[in-house]
Here is the input.
Amino acid sequence: MMMPAALSARPGASPDGPAAPDVAPDDEARWQAVCARDRAGDGQFVFAVATTYIYCRPSCPARRPARAHVRFYADGAAARAAGFRPCQRCRPDEAPRDAAALAHALALLAAAGPAPALADLAAHTGYSAGHIRRLVERATGLTPAAYGRALRRQRAEAALADGGRVIDAVYAAGYGAPSGFYAEARGAAMAPAARARGGAGQLIRWAEAATTLGPLLVAATQKGVCFLAFGAGKAELAARFPAAVLEEGGAGFAALVAKVVAAVEQPGSGEAIPLDVAGTAFQEAVWQALSRIPPGETLSYAELAVAAGFPGAARAVGQANGANRVAVLIPCHRVVRADGALGGYAWGEAIKAELLRRERK
Here is the structure.
């Protein structure tokens, strides 16, 4: 194949393509992102192929080249300066504009009030309706309408958790009528009205158990564990469910408590324990992604966002992670900061560090 003049004239060019730049320490991570077609890398860097003289965004659907032929550049301008041309399939030079449009669209969807129509999102971002829809779906795993509904439900349930009236929470969250909220919440572990009344009508059994990490409070409905916390007592449980019927567990409850304690002493090795932790669609997606992290391994918040199907939403994913109130069984302790530091933990960093040490051991 004849080399383009621009390449042949460039100092350092060879029959194998443009001269390779110095290998950066993070090139291996970039290569892994390219192999995974990770959209989180779009706009962060481009990869170029020395045999075709083309550069692409990490998520490009084209067949992956041999690693020896791949070069990495900070952006399209750097790749073009090295003699490469943009891929006509993935259009890598549009990635920064896509990222800005996506951020604007997500901000509009997150604003209080009714979710904007797809046509409005298109008008505000300067994209076609179909293109902005695809951007939102790739980033969140949901259509714009479904993502807006999930955020709206999250706002309503947050207001209910603070003790607000159902009718006030529903309208403030952006619902046109209470029936819309009830339709979306149907099938949740605890009815909206019961949640607003602090668990009214719910029977919650509880017990305190001793573990090597300190006292542990176990609380469960008939469906499964609804609250699990280190160092908590009945007063904290009552504050969370002030109108529920709290009943100290007896001999029948002891079997569940024993399973929970075993999961704490040897995290990741116990049998499945039923949970009753309905959250918003967004929260549940994050909690499911947490449960898929293998024992002994960790993810950063950005990596968890990708695993949950919400690349670019690391902050929102971190909030959903913090909303978890079932220690160990939903393993939020397996999420750390990007630099490897432990980061925060609702029950203390010492417990988080010990749980990770036990899993790695």
User: Anything to note?
Assistant: Residues 1-23, 186-190 have pLDDT under 50 and may be disordered.
